[in-house]
Amino acid sequence: MDLVYDKYFEQIYSWAIKKTNNKEDAEDLTNNVFLAIFEYFNKNIAIEKLDNLIWKIAHNIWCMKAKNYIKEKDNIALDEINTSYDEKYLDKVIYNEIMNNLNNIGLTENEFLTFKLYYCQDLSINEISDKLKTSQSNIKYYLYSARKKVRERYNE
Q1: CATH number of the domain within which 11 lies
Q2: 94 within some domain
Q3: Residues 69, 5: one domain?
Q4: Which residues of 94-128 are buried (b: 16+ CB within 10 A; e: fewer)?
Q5: What is the C-alpha separation between 108 and 134, in angstroms, rounded?
Q6: What is this structure's pTM?
Q7: pLDDT digits (tens, 9 = 90+) for 77-116
Q8: Are residues 75 and 131 in the same domain?
Q9: DSSP 3-state assignment of 21?
Q10: 118 DSSP 8-state letter
């Protein structure tokens, strides 16, 4: 764990400063990220790509902190979020960021629609198949292909 801390502390802290625009919040966010990483290591689960795991944990911790901020509205501003916005605003921001990232990955129209319906609208493969008027096996292939492209993009 010490090696991970030494290797990633500066990167995580710099990222946290950019996200929070506040030293105290950045320190809290960094501590929470490393606490979550430590807890994950204690589960003794095999880790394929450490870098991906660390940034996924950091992103999830940030999202939880941002959602809690929106709910509580008593904390110092995070990422310049206006306190007059509600949770739907944050969901819209996250949704738009995801969609912009997906557009830059090079998904086909069918892959994009399937990925969006499955992950963003929580539709089942059967529901997506009915909506797009194609077979379930095509939907499964589109999801497989989209996931593969996303993985390749973020493993670079």
Answers
A1: 1.10.1740
A2: no
A3: yes
A4: eeeeeeeebeeeebeebbbbbbbbbeeeebebeeb
A5: 15
A6: 0.45
A7: 445 545 444 556 666 766 677 777 777 778 888 988 898 8
A8: no
A9: coil
A10: I
Residue 29, token pair as written in the block: 């966010």
pLDDT tens-digit series, residues 37-80:
888 888 877 778 888 888 888 888 888 887 776 666 544 444 55
Tell me the HSE value of 74 on the side-chain side, using a 13 A CA sphere.
1
Residue 135 is predicted with a pLDDT of 94
- Domain range for 61 is 1-85
The confidence score (pLDDT) of residue 131 equals 92
User: Could you give the dihedral angle defined by the CA atoms of residues 96, 125, 64 and 17, in that order, rounded to the nearest 10 degrees?
Assistant: -40
CA distances from 44 to 35, 39, 121, 154 (A): 15, 9, 33, 24
Residue 156 tokens, joined: 């670079």
